[in-house]
Write a structure and sequence with these properties.
Blueprint (H helix, E strand, L loop, with lengths): L10 H5 L2 H34 L3 H15 L3 H6 L16 H9 L3 E9 L5 E9 L11 H4 L4 H4 L2 H4 L2 H11 L3 E12 L2 E14 L2 E8 L2 H16 L1 E7 L5 E3 L1 H6 L23 H12 L5 E9 L2 E13 L5 E10 L1 H38 L6 E4 L2 E8 L9 E8 L5 E8 L4 H17 L6 H15 L7 E9 L4 E7 L5 E4 L2 E4 L19 E4 L5 E5 L1 H4 L6 H15 L4 H12 L8 E8 L1
Antiparallel strand pairs: 1-2, 1-5, 3-4, 4-5, 6-7, 6-10, 8-9, 9-10, 11-12, 12-21, 13-14, 14-15, 15-16, 16-19, 17-18, 17-20, 20-21
């Protein structure tokens, strides 16, 4: 026995494992992508500067250049040269501008607009920067003054800051972006930073200040985001001064406006659902009397409905053990509770549906057993030996409506029929019963197979009004006097004829599915048979497989019939099922092998 620690696998095993390799590959891919984006962003800034257009227009031009040349945009971007800039000459800066910049505690510069021929602002000139100025790429006061903005800082285009600056200049409305995930690009390198940026129009220019958020500010910002994502709120009640401090999440949980005062401890009960008042009373007693931390959950009446809160509270004690403050961390778990209720309802419904499906399956199996008790064995009729096989689907839900019929009629002919009622379960089994029983009665009229199919179509169509009930079938008569098989197809694939060990699909017109249209008529086909011929009738479960189309399935059946041809129809069926995998079909399987004597 190990001690619970030494039994654990070493970290080295995981560091060199496949998971770590996948992470390394993904990180390398992301870094390549970021570098490519930096190359494109810098080329866009160069094009915009050289052509005197806005960066968005330059990006479109770069994309067109790549399309026309057939090259990758990154390769085109690498070929964009830095435009020749006039020598930067420090402009005379008014004293009030210099004084304004130096008064700022953060990085700051003063911009004046650069316009195109149409008078649109396309860029800015950095007139002056203060001594604190430092871009994410490390450019300072002297490197910035006098340069064009997107040349000195290409990242302002891709980050959207340039658009904000243009809006602030043209509208006079100040702009503030906190926090801003800013990525600078200089010399095809990226310099990411999280910034706080402000811009406001001052006289004929724009004053911009920015600073990089430090680690503490990033943590605070991250915590604020986490509160919003996790729907957390924090509150503190000073019991001595009665001062209450709430985060924005607490206001939202209790349905309070930020202009309203936070709820005092005694006012919380007024918001609680009556059934949960004992829970809140116990929480207050634990905090104030027993002076213990407590974790609990209760519901409050929110302006948008009832909210479920999970709350952890603790008292802050002085040196004598007297509570002086109460602190609370709350989480809105309403969505979680709703999901739990939805899952419970879904589980209940799934259980009910499963029970119904099991009951339906039992009825279906009993119905099929009653209708088609014969699963295998030879049936002898005048001039024929008929082998039949019905195998239900492995999955209960896939149990379908396959059926067959072989019967000697009073006029000496043999009725041979096979079909498939569309769908699965009790509905398909009921339609199968209706079709097979109807055919059994109609067959004694001595009408040809085409007429039997027309009557069956009318029977199914008018007996199932309001629901979609369709099926397919091959219906035919074998006449031992001349060994002809006169048959019709109602949307069903034709039989396979095996003669002298070679099988082929009998091509014939295919009529409409049973139950699909009113007053359907079906044509007849006559196939002359010879002693020793084998006729194979089948349902779609024999030839259809996942990932294989019907034509491929039919070809596989024809090929199998070459190999399996023999004197015994039952042995032929066993061989066909083995070669085609019919014993483990997802659908019902029904096969008839008819040998002409």
């Amino acid at each position: 026995m190990g001690d619970g620690v030494t039994d654990l696998p070493s970290f080295r095993r995981y560091e060199t494992g496949a998971a770590s390799a996948r992470v390394r590959d993904k990180l390398a891919e992301l870094r390549r992508h970021m570098r490519n984006e930096a190359i494109i962003d810098e080329a866009t800034a160069r094009l915009a500067t050289g052509l005197g257009i806005r960066p968005a227009e330059a990006a479109e031009r770069l994309a067109r250049m790549a399309k026309q040349s057939g090259l990758d945009p990154v390769d085109v971007a690498k070929g964009v040269e830095r435009p020749l800039e006039p020598e930067v000459v420090a402009a005379e800066v008014p004293h009030w501008v210099r004084g304004m910049l130096e008064a700022a505690h953060a990085s700051a510069f003063y911009l004046t607009p650069i316009c195109d021929e149409a008078g649109r602002v396309v860029d800015f000139r950095i007139v002056a920067a203060n001594r604190h100025a430092r871009t994410p790429a490390g450019l300072g006061e002297h490197e910035l003054a006098g340069r064009r903005l997107i040349t000195a800082s290409p990242g302002v285009a891709s980050s959207g800051l340039l658009d904000d600056y243009i809006h602030a200049y043209e509208s006079g409305e100040p702009v503030q972006r906190v926090p801003l995930e800013f990525v600078e690009v200089v010399d095809q390198r990226i310099w990411p930073a999280t910034l706080s940026v402000r811009a406001a129009r001052v006289e004929a220019g724009l004053l911009v200040t920015w600073r990089t958020l430090d680690d503490e500010e990033l943590l605070v910002t991250g915590w604020e985001r986490a509160q919003r994502l996790a729907e957390l709120g924090w509150g503190e009640w000073n019991l001595a001064t009665e001062h209450i401090l709430w985060t924005s999440g607490m206001y939202e949980m209790f349905g309070r406006n930020r202009d309203d005062a936070p709820l005092s401890l005694e006012e919380i009960s007024s918001m609680v659902v009556p059934d949960d008042l004992p829970v809140v009373d116990d929480m207050m007693r634990s905090l104030l009397e027993y002076r213990e931390a407590v974790e609990t959950a209760f519901r409050v009446q929110h302006r948008y409905g009832v909210r479920h809160l999970s709350v952890f509270s603790e008292p802050i004690l002085d040196g004598d053990g007297v509570p002086v403050k109460v602190r609370c961390l709350a989480q809105d778990v309403t969505r979680t509770r709703r999901r739990e209720r939805a899952l419970a309802v879904a589980h209940e419904q799934a259980t009910l549906q499963r029970r119904r499906a099991e009951e339906e399956h039992g009825v279906t199996v009993r119905l099929q057993d009653t209708i088609m008790p014969l699963r295998r064995g030879l049936v002898h009729t005048p001039g024929l030996a008929v082998g039949v096989r019905y195998l239900p689907a492995e999955q209960l839900a896939r149990l379908g409506g396959d059926w067959f019929k072989s019967r000697v009629l009073p006029d000496g002919r043999t009725l041979l029929a096979i079909g498939d009622a569309m769908g699965h379960g009790l509905t398909a089994a009921s339609l199968m019963l209706q079709t097979r029983s109807g055919l059994a009665g109609l067959a004694y009229t001595a009408a040809p197979a085409g007429q039997l199919a027309t009557w069956l179509n009318d029977l199914i169509l008018h007996s199932n009004e309001g629901i979609t009930a369709t099926g397919t079938a091959i219906i035919g008569h074998f006449d031992p006097a001349d060994r002809t098989f006169s048959w019709t197809s109602a949307g069903h694939p034709g039989p396979i004829l095996v003669r002298e060990g070679r099988g082929r699909l009998i091509e014939a017109p295919t009529g409409m599915m049973l139950g699909a249209l009113d007053s359907a008529e079906y044509g007849m086909s006559v196939t002359r048979l010879e002693p020793g011929d084998l006729l194979v009738l089948y349902t779609d479960g024999v030839v259809e497989r996942r990932g294989r189309d019907l034509d491929s399935g039919l070809e596989a059946l024809v090929q199998a019939s070459h190999f399996c041809a023999g004197d015994d129809p039952e042995e032929m069926i066993d061989c066909l099922l083995e070669r085609l995998g019919g014993g483990s079909s997802e659908d019902d399987v029904c096969l008839m092998a008819v040998r002409v004597l």
